[in-house]
Amino acid sequence: MPIHVGIVCESCERVYFIARTDRIEFLAETGEYQLVCPAPCGVSRRFDKQRLAPFSVKTPHYSRGYANRGEYELVRTPAGYTNTVDGNTGPFSASL
Ligand SMILES: [Zn+2]
């Protein structure tokens, strides 16, 4: 399956893909991102980019901007991994 960069909502375990969703907002003042998970979850939290991680996901799920639990796999990668699909660079934390 293709690999895309996203953040998992720790409450409902849905993954949002940063390049495809409007549920993730970059906060310029703090340099953090804010994830707002819609109802019925309703959790809002801030995270820094180190928390972004690569996920293996089918294209239809990526295209809609999120994948539910069971629709994705967290890809464990070594530090320094570069995701050429989304154009993001830099090490990803594998400690999600
Ligand atoms: Zn959620």
Q: Could you outline the blueprint of secondary structure elements for this entry?
A:
Elements: E1 3-8, E2 15-17, E3 24-27, E4 32-36, E5 44-47, E6 53-57, H1 59-63, E7 66-67, E8 72-74
Antiparallel strand pairs: 1-2, 1-6, 2-7, 3-4, 4-5, 6-8
Bound molecules: zinc ion.
What does this structure look like?
The protein is mainly β and 96 residues long. It has one domain. It has one helix and eight strands, in the order ββββββαββ. It has one helix at residues 59-63, and strands spanning 3-8, 15-17, 24-27, 32-36, 44-47, 53-57, 66-67, 72-74. A five-stranded antiparallel β-sheet has the order 7-2-1-6-8. Strands 3-4-5 form a three-stranded antiparallel β-sheet, with no helix packed on it. A hairpin with a 7-residue loop joins strand 4 (32-36) and strand 5. The longest helix is centred in the middle third of the chain and has 5 residues, at 59-63. It is globular, with a radius of gyration of 12 Å. The two termini are 20 Å apart. 23% of the residues are buried. Residues 89-96 have low confidence and may be disordered. It binds zinc ion.
What proportion of the residues is helical, as a percent range?
under 10%
For the largest sheet, list the strands in their spatial order. Answer: 7-2-1-6-8
Bound molecules: zinc ion
Overall body shape: globular
Q: How much of the residues is beta strand, in percent?
A: 25-35%
Return the structural class.
mainly beta
State the domain count: 1
First-residue to last-residue Cα separation: 20 Å
Q: How many E-type strands?
A: 8
